[in-house]
Amino acid sequence: MNRRNTLLTLISGFLLISGCSDSPRGETKTGTPSSTPTAALSDLDPEALLPQEGDGWRHVNSKNYTWTHLGADDGIKGYYEKDGALRAEVIIMKVSDDGAGSTAEREARTLYCQAGWQVVVVRGPFAVAASTGTPRKSFTPEAPPTMDQTAISESEDAVVTLLSNSPRLSREMIADQRLRDSDC
User: Does pLDDT of 70 surpass 80?
Assistant: First the structure.
């Protein structure tokens, strides 16, 4: 019995020291998202693209979410606040090319052109969108995700700054690769 308790204590201590964590679907996370800048994009979880805190932005929480009805395999929502007044949401969809037209590019175009997200970028298999709001629309399986508030037009630069806090996105990359009205 004493050997069993010692073994259980050692295993528990190892897990605590190694920093293992498991986040079941739907669990809310708080704190700063972690980064792994050396992994290949296709091997990453959507969380690896979430912006870090900085430039006045504070990470409020995150929630795993998968938009399977829009073709995504995995996803996450991140909620941020700047200076206690400006709020933004970031969504990251991981989409595999299923051969039937479901790609990150298509999902990104849906988020920008149909749902009205302020800044949308494609990064490998990921569609990344951020906004202080979107036009109010009802969410249905046929419609892309929208926010419940209207975007603040003068906040677009702040949203770009937020996204550039991601370990996988830079301000230059966002400027070069973001969707524009001509993409719709």
Answer: no
| Residue 167 belongs to a domain | yes
- Please check whether residue 49 is in contact with residue 126, taking contact to mean a CB–CB distance below 8 angstroms: yes
Question: pTM of the predicted model, to two decimals?
Answer: 0.72
Compute and round to an integer the Cα radius of gyration of the chain. 18
DSSP 122: E
Residue span of the structural domain in which 84 resides: 25-183
Structural domain includes residue 120: yes
Q: How does pLDDT run across 33-65, given as a tens digit for each residue?
A: 544 455 688 889 999 999 999 999 999 999 998
How many separate domains does the chain show? 1
Q: In whole angstroms, what is the distance from residue 93 CA to residue 15 CA?
A: 30
